[in-house]
């Protein structure tokens, strides 16, 4: 039954739905606990230490960096619970048999489906799941295309810009909204692009004779709980220990770029303004000062340097700077935009105030910055780019070389830029 073309496919769909639901929903309470603990620890440090570089380093550098590492552990653990359970059960081999014909048409192994599906929750467990693919070329191809799936970190970007700029219209008699359709389109975009990318890789860089599909179907047996738990433990520990150090170091480096330089004259002026401000305006003034510091930081300077490069996409230096700031993790762009526009770094993707300030942002000549083509170009860029340090680090650990993650970063960035360029120029030419 489980290897039948019809019943086996239906059974596989149910299993994948459960896996998909687990990575998306079941991990949410644990991720929420980690995020709450991180926020509580940041608040504690903010209360104990005086305002200054040490406080900011610990809050936005060290603690945020550790949080960016640990927050992935629930999804990684759940994925490997499922993989270890299904493999020990004897079912994973049946999955490869069922899906191999479909995946083979684009040059991928049947076992590549689980890593790619897992990528919709997070590319990191998806890449790590490619360990089950024996052939090196197939494994590398899967690792290189898995980050194209729209992971959960891209969702805040989609929600922010769709909520702010896509009109609220219903289709099919109210059964489907335009905003939901746009969101669905962006989730499908990565999978659509992955097909020609995988096909091209298998016929060029990773070209080789396809391995014969010889598969042993092991007998069914009750999974060994100790084996399952040990696999989960070692996989999670490997990610935290090996990848965590690099992610933490880069997060601290990005904090330094956004914090320095600090002009003594500007700091003195800010102190005087805070002392003279009414208590009711103090919070808004502090957010305004934070935006000024970021604008004059090394990161802000980098945004102005790359502005000529991103202008063809319809972006100004502030968008470019937010994109650079989001390199450690895509979702950082939301808080980065909140800081840049003097709203503070606690804004989320559903913030009405952030939606309003983006909708009213203008160029120096008064033209609105965030037109529909600009909005779509930003979302296309984030749908296709490799703005996730954690993913690149895990790619290096899984392939044993920095060459493959650098290749992945390069081709995805080029794809993202070209896609954003086409969308913006085409949308502008059509008058949107």
Protein topology:
Elements: H1 7-26, H2 28-48, H3 53-70, H4 73-89, H5 92-104, H6 113-118, H7 123-129, H8 136-145, H9 155-165, E1 170-171, E2 176-177, H10 178-203, H11 225-259, H12 264-276, H13 282-296, H14 298-305, H15 307-310, H16 317-325, H17 332-340, H18 352-360, H19 372-384, H20 389-399, H21 403-429
Helix pairs in contact: 1-4, 2-3, 3-11, 4-7, 4-11, 7-20, 8-10, 9-10, 9-18, 9-19, 10-19, 11-20, 14-16, 16-17, 19-21, 20-21
What does this molecule look like?
The radius of gyration is 23 Å and the shape is globular. The protein has helices at residues 7-26, 28-48, 53-70, 73-89, 92-104, 113-118, 123-129, 136-145, 155-165, 178-203, 225-259, 264-276, 282-296, 298-305, 307-310, 317-325, 332-340, 352-360, 372-384, 389-399, 403-429; strands at 170-171, 176-177. With 432 residues, it is an all-alpha fold. Helix 8 packs antiparallel against helix 10 (178-203) and helix 20 runs antiparallel to helix 21 (403-429). The protein has a two-stranded antiparallel sheet. Strand 1 (170-171) and strand 2 (176-177) form a beta hairpin. Helices cover 70% and strands 1% of the residues.
């Amino acid at each position: 039954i489980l290897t039948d073309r019809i019943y086996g496919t239906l059974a596989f769909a149910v299993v994948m739905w459960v896996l998909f639901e687990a990575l998306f929903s079941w991990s949410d309470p644990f991720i929420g606990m980690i995020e709450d603990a991180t926020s509580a620890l940041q608040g504690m440090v903010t209360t104990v230490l005086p305002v200054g570089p040490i406080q900011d380093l610990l809050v936005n550098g060290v603690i945020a960096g550790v949080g960016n590492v640990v927050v992935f552990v629930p999804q990684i653990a759940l994925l490997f619970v499922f993989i270890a359970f299904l493999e020990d059960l004897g079912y994973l081999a049946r999955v490869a048999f069922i899906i191999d014909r479909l995946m083979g048409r684009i040059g991928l192994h049947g076992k590549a489906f689980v890593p790619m599906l897992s990528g919709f929750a997070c590319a990191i467990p998806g890449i790590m799941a490619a360990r089950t693919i024996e052939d090196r070329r197939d494994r590398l191809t899967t690792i290189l295309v898995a980050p194209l799936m729209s992971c959960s970190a891209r969702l805040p970007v989609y929600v922010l810009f769709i909520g702010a700029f896509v009109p609220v219209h219903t289709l099919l008699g109210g059964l489907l909204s335009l905003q939901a359709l746009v969101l669905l389109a962006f989730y499908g975009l990565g999978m659509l692009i992955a097909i020609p990318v995988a096909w091209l890789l298998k016929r060029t860089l990773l070209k080789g004779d396809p391995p014969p599909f010889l598969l042993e179907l092991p007998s069914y047996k009750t999974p060994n709980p100790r084996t399952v738990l040990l696999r989960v433990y070692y996989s999670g520990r490997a990610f935290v220990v090996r990848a965590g150090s690099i992610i933490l170091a880069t997060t601290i480096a990005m904090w330094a770029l956004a914090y320095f330089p600090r002009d003594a004259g500007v700091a003195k002026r800010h102190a005087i303004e805070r002392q003279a401000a009414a208590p009711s305006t103090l919070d808004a003034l502090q957010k305004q000062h934070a935006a000024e510091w970021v604008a004059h930081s090394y990161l802000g300077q980098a945004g102005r340097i790359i502005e000529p490069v991103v202008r063809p996409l319809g972006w100004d230096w502030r968008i470019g700077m937010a994109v650079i700031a989001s390199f450690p993790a895509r979702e950082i762009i939301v808080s980065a935009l909140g800081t840049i526009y003097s709203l503070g770094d606690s804004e989320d993707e559903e913030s009405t105030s952030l939606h309003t300030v983006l909708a009213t942002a203008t160029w120096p000549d008064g033209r609105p910055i965030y037109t529909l083509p600009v909005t779509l170009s930003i979302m296309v860029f984030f749908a296709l780019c490799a703005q996730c340090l954690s993913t690149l680090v895990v790619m290096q650990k899984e392939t044993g070389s920095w060459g493959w993650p650098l290749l992945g970063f390069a081709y995805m960035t080029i794809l993202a830029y070209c896609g954003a360029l086409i969308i913006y120029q085409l949308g502008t030419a059509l008058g949107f």
